[in-house]
Design goal:
Layout lengths: L2 H6 L1 H16 L3 H7 L5 H7 L5 H12 L14 E4 L10 E4 L1 H23 L9 E5 L6 E2 L5 E3 L1 H7 L1 H4 L10 H5 L3 H14 L4 E8 H24 L9 H11 L4 H11 L7 H5 L5 E5 L8 H8 L3 E3 L2 E3 L4 E4 L12 E3 L5 E6 L8 E3 L8 E7 L7 E2 L2 E9 L2 E9 L3 E2 L6 E2 H16 L3 E11 L6 E10 L10 H14 L2 H10 L6 E5 L3 H11 L16 H9 L1 E6 L7
Helix pairs in contact: 10-11, 10-12, 11-13, 11-15, 16-17
The structure holds adenosine monophosphate.
Amino acid sequence: MDLMKLTSNAKQIQDDVLKEILTLNANTEYLYRYLHGSSDKELFKKNVPVISYDDVKPYIQRVANGEPSNVISGKPITGFLLSSGTSGGEQKIFPVNNKFFEDMAFIFALRSFLISKHIEDDEEGNEKGKVLMLFFARQQSTSPCGLPISTSVTGYLMSDSFKNRPSNCFTSPDEVALCPDLKQAMYCHLLCGLRQRDEVVALAASFASSLVGAITFLESYWKEMCSNIRYGQLSEWITDLRCRDAVTNILGGSNCELADQIEEECNKISWEGIVTRLWPKVKFIQSIITGQNSQYIPMLEFYSNKVHLFSPAYGSSETMFGVNMNPLCKPQDVSYTFMPNISYFEFILADDGNKGEIVDLVNVKIGSYYEPLITNYYGLHRYRMGDILQVSGFYNNEPQFRFVRRKNMVLSVNLEVTTEEDILKALNNATLVLKRSDLLLTGFTCYADISTLPGHYIFYWELKAKNISDIVKPGNKVLVECCCVMEESLSALYRDIRSKDGSIGALEIRVVQQGTFHSLMEIFISQGASPSQYKTPICIKSSEALAFLDNNVLARFFSDKSPPL
Ligand code: AMP
């Protein structure tokens, strides 16, 4: 892989990508309207409008209903990807073909290359080891014309790119990742990982939330897993036959010594450092820990004794974007270097006073905030991603971006605008207060309640005692202090309105029962969200989800003073 060439010739490669896309798609119904068959870059910039999902949805829907692909794409569309869509509520589908999965494989290969360069090798530079990779495939559905609709991870697992991957370093056989039953798959992933504990050098999942979910799952099932290892017999409830055969093979008969060792670790009062205790050779944890998933960093650090966290890549159902070239950086310094050969990327300024200025990938300015516009090979042209990124630097000529937030995720009960970034900052400060207690925050979401006046912010928190056997008794003082600290961290306008004019009420924390956020995830998954891509929404909008959370509230706390200005 010639990374040097790729990142040094970004401008030329981007121009070539656009030329290729416009030539391929020149005669599609969508593009012909604007370009009349031309593939000229200047004309593209002048005539093709910047769009959102609703603008292109009717065209996508027509292809899904059976009209020819060339309504939007010059090359045949072979399937659709379902975006996680848990934030805005709506699930979107995006047309793709095999190239998408080839790009995914390219990003994964790049990721492996960077890992082996920076992390994985031992002193002699040749140890490889295995990765406990939590991949989950979901059942595919089909569009009215019979094309598969799947999540990007599922699509990848079903693709030739996965089947023919150059090397296999996972602890789980492919049958586990492909098992459509989420619970069986999770059980088998962890069991295979435990069985091969001495070979595991990394734990990995797409998002940090899945890893935290896996550890919570392990808390409930480790005894059963140890028994399976002890007797060499897989639990009867693993009924997926292919998965069963493959995992039985890995179990390979009775192993009392290993079962004893695992039991000894899991039986200890605290699960602090459990990851490195169960998998002593683990050198890093790989999963996305930026954006919404930054809330899981303290949990992962607690469970892993601060093993290095590597946030590998930035991608979506619309396109892959790029990778973190510096795997060893701190969680707060993660940025992603865009790869110029995947899609054509433009950027619309998102700073205050946005005048809609659009620049090419190589022309973004360090420090500025942008929303990416995607032109991909499958029918999206100048499509607004809805993510806000900040340029943090350059790798050769290739800009690097820090993920800032989803665009539309804000809380507001008055004139103030509270962004996802504000919320995460407030939450980080509150977790510092929690650190002094024996409690861990395991899940949260929030909501702007304007049903009563003045409106106020409600944070739903799920807490867990650091010692696994302790029962959570949330102390009044600590949680009230958390409310105050969060208010102090919010914007100047929030504090101003709250303190001076009283049009924002006291911030509230509602502590919910343990397991509530897991059940919430199941509700979203039952409505079609993907388990591998699922992210607990930072702000919740669905009335069904809110009612569910409220039914699980154990205690309520309010800030007891106005925040300082
Ligand atoms: P999906 O289409 O369901 O895969 O969701 C894609 C969205 O997930 C992106 O638009 C981002 O908002 C978010 N996302 C993906 N990768 C990252 C990342 N590395 N850091 C933060 N958010 C991410």
